[in-house]
Design a protein that fits this description.
The protein starts with a helix and ends in an 8-residue tail after the last helix. It is globular, with a radius of gyration of 21 Å. The chain is mostly helical. The chain has one domain (25-215, 226-424): MFS general substrate transporter like domains (Growth Hormone, Chain: A, Up-down Bundle), CATH 1.20.1250. α14 packs antiparallel against α15 and α14 (308-326) runs antiparallel to α17. The model is unreliable at 1-7 and 12-17 (pLDDT under 50). It contains 17 helices and no strands. The longest helix is centred in the N-terminal third of the chain and has 32 residues, at 35-66. The chain has helices at residues 2-7, 12-22, 25-28, 35-66, 69-96, 99-122, 128-156, 162-191, 193-213, 228-241, 243-259, 266-273, 278-301, 308-326, 332-359, 366-395, 397-418.
Length: 426
């Protein structure tokens, strides 16, 4: 009898209480003990705030110019197209050159593109095709920036604090997501979109200064250089042969392509479904960011926990459920609450997927593996934007969101039943 009682799992309430007891405010910011990471954190936080102001204003501006949800999808498609062209190659570059140098180049390029869009807008010259071309340019810079940025984490912190640093990266991203769109909506309404783009351009200075001030270990290039194709093939083969990495990356792809596609429609949703304006659009995007920030801080507070698989599984099931629920709501306050819940569950997926993939990645292949991860994440965004924009044009925004959420939920259930080892990962 004693053995039976010991083997039984404790009640759910007891397990939930145990989880709450693990939360530690001190552990939440463990990665900030590293000086280089502190510089990165504050520089990126300022830069991301500006980036979200531009993303919000850019989407609403092109919707004002065209009145077409399909154009919203086209902007997303054009911005993500460089991922397909450059990102896998960028992963090879990130394993060959100092990542700080690569990040300095990409951040400077994004600064220049933001100021160009601001100039066109202030001069009353901006046309839809200008936004598309500049979105493509931002996409090129991001294709080289993302793999280097993902792999750069372990140059700033020790491996045991990697999950915490990734969680804080998500926290900084979603702090900007929570505030940037709301401020952009108000700024857009009061002063126009040009100031949103200008603030974004200025914000890149913060991360450039932070990168320049870091004191990093010297970069040691590979002793033997293969061809680009050989290096790329090595990374692809490793991912293809590693079942857990493969499953996690496919999960990221499914969530990006179907579950997260709804975000493309926020400007049209604010106007057509909720009867709002640019401020409403900003509040919708900010609500999602508030939820994601809460989720990221929750993960950071758990410390060096050993149940990432279970938390990831919960996120993959909860997120599409909230997306489907959002599609049926027509009252703004309730819509905002659901988006907060969706943001929390969404960040569980991407934060834990990132952490688990990096845990399974050898140092010499990290840049290439993270380029494949980033390729799936960013590369499927334009496809998601394109299909949901077209579906919204034909069937309406709510129907398109329900379709995407339902497919994402079905995929999560399939992984739960057919890959049980995933939710057992420590």
């Amino acid at each position: 009898m004693e053995e039976y009682l010991k083997s039984r799992k404790p009640p759910f309430s007891q397990r939930a209480f145990g989880l709450v007891k693990r939360l530690s405010w001190k552990q939440t910011f463990a990665a900030l003990q590293y000086p280089n990471y502190r510089l990165w954190f504050w520089g990126q936080l300022i830069s991301l705030f500006g980036s979200w102001m531009q993303i919000t204003a850019q989407g609403f501006l092109i919707y004002q110019l065209t009145k077409s949800p399909a154009y919203l999808g086209l902007v997303g498609f054009v911005a993500g197209l460089p991922t397909w062209i450059f990102m896998l190659y960028a992963g090879v570059v990130a394993d060959r050159v100092p990542r700080r140098r690569l990040l300095l180049i990409t951040q400077a390029a994004m600064l220049a593109l933001a100021f160009i869009l601001a100039g066109l807008t202030f001069g009353h010259l901006v046309q839809p095709w200008h936004i598309l071309v500049l979105a493509f340019g931002m996409g090129v810079a991001n294709a080289f920036d993302a793999p280097a940025r993902q792999a750069f984490v372990l140059e700033m912190v020790e491996p045991e604090d990697m999950t915490n640093a990734i969680a804080l990266n998500a926290a900084m991203f979603n702090s900007a997501t929570a505030l940037g769109p709301a401020v952009a909506g108000v700024t857009y309404a009061l002063f126009g979109p040009g100031w949103c783009f200008t603030i974004n351009g200025i914000s890149f200075i913060a991360v450039i200064v932070a990168l320049a001030l870091m004191k990093l270990r010297p970069f040691i290039p590979k002793a033997q250089m293969n061809s680009v194709l050989q290096d790329l093939k090595e990374g692809l083969c490793y991912v293809a042969s590693h079942r857990m990495i493969r499953t996690i990356i496919v999960t990221v792809g499914a969530v990006t392509l179907f579950g997260f596609a709804y975000a493309t429609l926020m400007p049209a949703w604010a106007v057509k479904v909720l009867g709002g304006d640019s401020t409403t659009n900003g509040f919708l995007l900010s609500a999602r960011g508030v939820g994601a920030l809460i989720g990221a801080l929750l993960i950071a507070s758990l410390g060096r926990f050993k149940f990432r698989g279970r938390l990831l599984t919960f996120g993959t099931l909860a997120f599409p459920s909230f997306v489907i629920l959002f599609a049926f709501v027509r009252w703004l306050p309730l819509s905002l609450l659901i988006l907060i819940a969706a943001g929390m569950s969404h960040i569980l997926i991407f934060n834990l997927c990132n952490s688990l993939v990096q845990s399974f990645s050898p140092d010499g292949l990290r840049g290439r593996i993270m380029s494949i991860y980033s390729f799936v994440f960013f590369g499927l965004m334009p496809v998601a934007a394109l299909w949901i924009g077209g579906a919204a044009e034909k069937f309406g925004e709510p129907a398109a969101v329900i379709i995407g959420g339902s497919i994402s939920l079905l995929f999560a259930l399939a992984v739960f039943f057919f890959v049980p080892k995933l939710h057992k990962l420590a």
